Structure formats: C-alpha cells, structure tokens
Structures
1.
Amino acid sequence: MEDLSHYRKSYEKSELLESNIPEDPINLFNRWFHEVEDFGGNEEVNAMTVGTIGLDGFPRSRVVLLKKFTEEGFIFYTNYNSEKGKAIAQNPKICLSFFWHTMERQVIIKGVARKTAAAISNNYFESRPHGSKLGAIVSNQSEVVPSRAFLEENLKQLENDYEGIVIPRPEHWGGFLVTPVEVEFWQGRPNRLHDRIRYTSQENFTWKIERLSP
C-alpha cells in the first residue's frame, strides 16, 4: 500500500469572481483557453476528457483533442464505429472536461453530441497529414487486433494503394458537435475554498449563473 495523503498543494494563481465574467460560458472558455495557452506549460491545451455511458452501462472516459469551438459548441473527431462512437449513438448525453494544471483551472461541460455535417468533417479530414488520413482508414478503432505487426502491415499496403492518390474521408469517420447545457468553471484557491461558477442553459437562450460551494 502507498499512502498519498501527504500530496498537497496550495492553489494561489488566480481567482474567479462574478464581477469579472461574461454572460455566456463560451466567451469565458475562450478567455481561459488563450490565457492558459499564453501562460505556457500545457503542451496540448486542447486535450480534454470525453466521458460517455458505454453500451455495457458503465461510464468510460478517454482523452481526445478539441478541434474547434464556437457559439454552437465543441467539436472533436473520431471513428463513429469506435466504442465512444457507438456509446454516443446510443446515449448522446456526454461530458467534456479540461484540466489546466499550470493555471490551476478545470472546466466541466455537460452537453448533447450530434454528428457534424459531412462538409465539416470533409474539410477537417482534408487538412490532416497524409499519415493521419491513412491511420483513420487502417484502424478499426476499439476492435481487437492480433498484433502491432498486423496494423503496420496493413498501413504499408494502404501507403502503396494510395500513393499519389487523394485519400477520401471514410464514411465511418467524422466529427461530433457537443452543444453544452451546463458548463462549470473551477479555479483553485487557497485553503481549498475554490471558486466554482456554473452556467446552466435556459429556454430563452440565456444562461443562469450560480456560484457553487467548493
């Protein structure tokens, strides 16, 4: 047994006050995202955890990369036939979370996911490096494979098949747009009295803003 109770840290880098936040969470997310990016220390600021309810009824989380965010929501790309793709198809209510340790900040997003339009997925797929395009085709994501060599041999075959040829986006690969219904911003503070501000979507396209006890 290893006791980790002595792992302690005092959070003192910033604060989150109602007097200094916008009326909607996307604007605050945009501000925090670029502040973290400018501060440095997070190699992939757009790395986020996607939580779903699996087909077996168990929650499951994995880290993926956010590729775009707008007033509509947050976009990431994946194999629709993967475990998370199938889970989202069955239950589109998912959770996104960001933890930016350099700024002692966390964002938790509850939302509803839906597939992006084919044109959006096509445009992003075309922007990917050649190897990443081939990887999307060769990988039956989440499926059992016999070995690493099996994947590498299939990749070599695809490299030959698509040499000098435009690689089309597979129909089973594309984007999800997550429309938020609730967004919580967490800012670490001294003595564990952290700041927690929650935005909840309202029927009139506004946001209810509340402070939560830490």
2.
Amino acid sequence: MKRCLDDVYPDAHCELDFTTPLELLVAVVLSAQTTDVRVNLVTPALFKRYRTAADYAGADRTELEEYLRSTGFYRAKANSVMGLGAALVERFGGEVPNKLEDLVTLPGVGRKTANVVLGNAFDVPGITVDTHFGRLVRRWGWTAEEDPVKVEHAVGELIPRKEWTMLSHRVIFHGRRVCHAKKPACGACPLAKDCPSYGTGPTGFDEAAKLVKGVEKDHILAMAAPR
C-alpha cells in the first residue's frame, strides 16, 4: 500500500504556502478548524505585514484579528500567534527551533504541528497525524490506536524513518482526494486490492470516479481503472 501511494502521489507536498519556518509554523496554527486553501488566501497579506516573531509578539490585536477573521476562531488564533511570537523571542532568540521537544513547548503547538514544521521546514522526518491520517491508517488496518501519539509511534514502526514526512503527505493527499470520511471512492481507488475496508464506499468504477477530487484526478483514475 505504501509503494502504491508513492506511485499515485509522487509529488505530494505540504499544501500550506510558506517560505520560512516561521511562516509555516504560523500557517499550521491558523489551519485549525479550516482548510489549507483558506489559510493560503490569508497568509500573503499576513506574512507581508508580520515578518518576524517580534512582529507577532508586538502586534496590535485588533489589526491582527482582522487579518485572521476569515479563518474562523480568529480571536483564539490571534492569541496563539501573539503568544507564539512572544515565546520565540523570549526563549529562542526569535527563531523557530528545529527540535520536537522545543517546538511542543510553544503555545498552540502540539506534536502534529511540530512534525509538520520539522518535516517541511527542517527536513527532519516526522509523521503528521491529522484527522485524515488517523482515519486512513485505521481504515487500512495499520493500527487500531485512536490516540494520535500512539498512532504516530505505531506507524513509525512500520515505515522507515527517512520516509515519514512523505508518507504523511501521501496519506493526507489520499484522504482528501479519494478515501473520504463518509463516502470513500472505493471503486476508483488504486489501493483497493490491498484495502481491508474495500466496500465502505461505492465499488463501481464509474460511480466512485465521480467522488475523486483534485488536480491528480486523471492520474488516479488511470491507475485505478479496470484492466
């Protein structure tokens, strides 16, 4: 299944736009309870206005909230981002640390966020257990664990460490494009022959094909089409 994911999504990547570790950290914090697409609409102006951790720490709350309003829960997110900036200035010289144990001490940063930042900003392998990842690996029988930290460790034992970050991207891509929570596109899934949950969604190719999303749709359908 992992080799199939490699073939289906060779170009999988973090779908949040960023150029620096700080930008990625802020974008991941903002992505809670909203989509990466929505965050990417907000961050160009935000990153132009706030360039450093000190900028976030000293932000005018009302102004910052206006930048964040469309992401939802904007007051809480403004609190998180300002607290994040202050903690980075006070404890890390304004720089984003590149160690898990340091990142998770920052306000609003858990293991999921830390692993996204480590894997994509610092090339430190990490498994990102978001809702898609957890749902799919349980659906596939890779683990029965519900707790994200236990899922992370269980899957980490199955897959070589150097491949953790790309595995995370590919599983998340598959969850967004094919293996949906309520109605997975089983009949148009390249992983179908190895999936113990095949049949959770429609198994007819034509019906399932209508459920497949994303710019990779044609490639996915070509790999899954009946021979």
3.
Amino acid sequence: MMDQNADQDTDQNIDRLVFTGTGDAMGVPRVYCDCQVCEEARSTGANRRFRSSVSVAGPDGEFMIDCGPDWRTQMELAGKRFIRDIVITHAHFDHIGGLPEWADACRWLEIKGQLYAPQEVIDIIVRQYPWLDRHLEMHPIDQGLSLAGWGIKGWKVNHGKNGYSYAYKLSKPGITWVYCSDSIGLPEDQKQPLHGLDLLVLGTSFYKEEAEYTGRSVYDMTEALELLAEVKPGRTIFTHMSHDVDVRKDYGLPEQVSVAVMGYTVSLTKE
C-alpha cells in the first residue's frame, strides 16, 4: 500500500508524498556549528535538512503543507515554478517564512495562491504579513476541506512551550494518514485521531532530548516510540529533525518506523 522507495515512481495516477523539508526550526547544518552531523550536511549532504514541509501530488492535483523560509530553494530543487495550494499547520516562522516569496510569485504570474489554515492561524499570518491577501486567498478550514481528492481534517495539538500547532488527517478510499510535525505530550483527546492510521508522519527533533521537559516543544524519538505503541499506525516516518539526528546511524527503530531524508517519497495508493 505504501512504498517508501517510490522516488523512482513517475506514475501520475499514484498519489505521492514527498518530503521537501525534514529539519527543525533552525535546519541543518546550523550556521554556527561544526558537529559531525553539520559537517556531513555541508559535504556529502545526507543530513542536510530544510525546514519541514511536504508536498502531495497525484491525479487529482497537488498541494504543499507548510511554507517555511527554504520554500524558494525547495521549489527550485523540485523543478517547480509555481504551486497554487498550500496548507499551513501553524504560524511559526519555520512554517510560514516563505509566504512572502510565494505571494511575490503569485503577483508576477498573476495567479491567486490558495492558502488553507484554521482561522486563528490565518489571523496571525495576516497580522504578521498584512499585504499577503493582495495575492493570496485565505480559506479558514476549521470544519475541514477537500483538496486534490483528499478529505482533510485538522485538530489542535500541544506544541509544548511553543503553544500549539495543528495536525492534519488526510483520507481517500483505502488510505488514511496524518501529518503531525510539531507536537509533544499529546493528551488523550489529541491522540484519538492517530489510532488506526496507515501512515503517521511525526516530528521528532532529537533521538533523546536532555533539555528540561517544560522548555521543550517536540517529541524525541524515544517518546515517539511510546506514542506509537499506543496508537499503532501501520507505518511511521519521523521528520522535523535537529542536528542531533544522524540519518547514517542505526537507531534500532522498529521495522515499520523510518527516518525521512530530503526528497524521500512515499506512494499513497488505494487498496
């Protein structure tokens, strides 16, 4: 049902999830850092990570989730000149910092971009970038939406010290998956939509984070594995990783759990 090696698959009749960014708020390499992970990211680049986002494309259309400050480079590397539809998880800079560049592309191409987010997220975006609505149409999606053939429903999740984010459940006949890039310590009501998924994309900034829990904002991998034991998704892919995570390392993860790298592509097919 889901092929983690689908990056060679060019069948336009298959929905594909592409990890256009897999990094945390600062990305990898850190400009100030000469740790082994950052140095490798500068050279061979397996650990190079733009700020987290994904694209979903298939026979019914395409869209992105989040538009961080690396958006322009992500588009260039993908060979794309435009994207019309973007869904936003929350209004932190690493998830919306590319909106002015997207809006500028819309201005030059004379095409209105379509931004989708909960109303409270839209309100923050408009306060921060008050000119964006000249070039973007902003759609509140508190009651859900249908986009590129996917039914999409969001719900607020705990983002620890950083407040809140939104996770999104995406469904088509035969497959249901969730994108939850920024969360920690989810209470029972926020965990409920994670049960019985075919795929969970989950943010894990560290393998084992040593910082004081009250100052943290994203699961580490050890905590994530405890969550997975509760909700039991068919497959899980970790994203939103800091320079603590080395993708060359074997972390002894369960067979159904993997770590995303840039460009990692998954086929999302109906049963």
4.
Amino acid sequence: MLNYLDNIKNTESGNFFLMAGPCAIEGEDIAMRIAEKIISITDKLQIPYIFKGSYRKANRSKGSSFTGIGDEKALRILERIGREFGVPTVTDIHESDEAAMAAAYVDVLQIPAFLCRQTDLLIAAAKTGKVVNVKKGQFLSAGSMKFAVEKIKEAGNDKVILTDRGNTFGYQDLIVDYRGLPEMQSFGVPVVMDCTHSLQQPNQSSGVTGGKPELISTIAKAAIAVGADGLFIETHPDPANAKSDGANMLHLDLLEETLTKLIRIRQAIL
C-alpha cells in the first residue's frame, strides 16, 4: 500500500479510513459486487478504503463450518479487486508459511486476534514488507499490544496497524474498553475499531457464533468520538445467508447511512 501513513492518517478529507468487506471470500461475483458498492460509497464520502476479505477461515467452532473456496482461488479474487478498482486489499494469515503466499496477492496482512502473540507469525508477516494489521486478542490488555508492535518493527517493518475487537466478558460475550484506543495510539501506529467482531457472542452451544449487529453503529460512533484512526466493518448484501459470521455483519444497504453519520461526528471533534 503506497504512502502508508499519509493514506491512512492524514487524508485531505480528514476522515477516518475504512477496512470493509465480507467476512470470507465466497465467490468472485459477490466479492466484486460488494467491492464495487463500497467503493462507490467511500469515493462519494471521501473515505480512504481498504477492501477486506478472508481467503480462508481457519478458526471455526464446528468442523463442518465454511472455511473457504480454495486458497489460490480466493487470493486471486482479492488480487483482481485490488487491480481493477485500484484499492488496497487485506486478508488474514494463520501460519508463518502463509505470509509470503498471501503477500503476493494483497497489500495488508492481518493477524487474527487469537494469534496476535505468535512471534513467528508476526515476524513472517513483517518480513514480507507489507502493512501488518494486528488484531488485539480478546484476552489481552491494550497496553500489552506494544510487544506485537515491537516484534514487527524489530523485524524491519514499521508499517503496523492495531485493531481492537473487544475484550472477553464472561463465556459468551465481549465488551469494548475505549480507553484502549488512545493507549494503543501512543505506540505511534494507526488504531482501528473492529465494529462487527466486537459484537460477537462466541461459544454458543450451537457451535455457531452469535452477534448483535444492531449495535454496530453504536460501537462505531463511540470509536470515532474517541478518535479512532479507522474502522473495520464486515458487510454483506445478505448477512442471514452469508457463509461466515453473518450474525454480526452490517447489511450492505445500511453502510452509506452509517458512514455519513460517522463523518459528522468526526468533523465535530476535529
């Protein structure tokens, strides 16, 4: 991704940046349609945009859950979106040997929350030279994320983003501590609020994670008011039938209205 900090933190519009897209790459047609719709919105609102899509879902409660359409197939779809729409793309990696593979197709490598302390994975991502977005573990304090930043920078890469996605609250809920956003910003990196995964209700007896998508705008409004540099929002035209994490995704039809309201908050605090 060109002009890393300029593109993310110091845009002419003064807006936050957005990472958004489906939870997983389900197929080329739907991924392209989602990307085209979001780009039409972010261009209109002057919001810097990074397309998000997981090429594979490695962390599933049930063995029968959807994990992907094939690594190379999904990565080529991400590559096509980046090339045809001229936007950066981000995807998760799960093992050290995936870093170089994914880096050949996308601009930003994302470290899932459960893996944010995996030293070999962080170093492998850093050594690709790509931007590395590390999701804060639900089990970690904001302050402890400085060590993830240090690992990546000590490996020779200073292009780091940190993303909050809530803290574990009991067995089946998460809660967001907004004090963590400015604390992580003190490490000198952009900080993002994941407005969808922070509303998950994990560890359900059904083996399928639940969620509270009706509160996505609430989480986002608070994050912008606190001064988050960016937002992470998973969105889909038909969340009820999405193949992964549909229970906590924002309906694509609601995205423009949500972002418009958030821009007003951003302008009020500048």
